[in-house]
Specification:
The protein is mostly helical and 71 residues long. It has one domain. 54% of the residues lie in helices and 11% in strands. The protein has a two-stranded antiparallel sheet. Helix 1 runs antiparallel to helix 2. The chain is flat. The two termini are 28 Å apart.
Length: 71
Amino acid sequence: MEQASTWCADAAVAIGQGVSLDVQLFGAPTLLDRPTGPGGGLREWTLHAVALDGLAAQFLEVDPDWTPPSR
């Protein structure tokens, strides 16, 4: 588990560095339309957000048995 966490963190840092270089070299960040708005409406996502979303989908999963701690 710890190794996967390290890989995920390293990948997130690498994505951020790559996007930073892209913006420095080519100007404004790349924007993509994705159907993530209400009712499937299109919303603008940066390339960085799309990459991190894919990373989260690969490395994370929802725990169906999780409940929030009581206060």
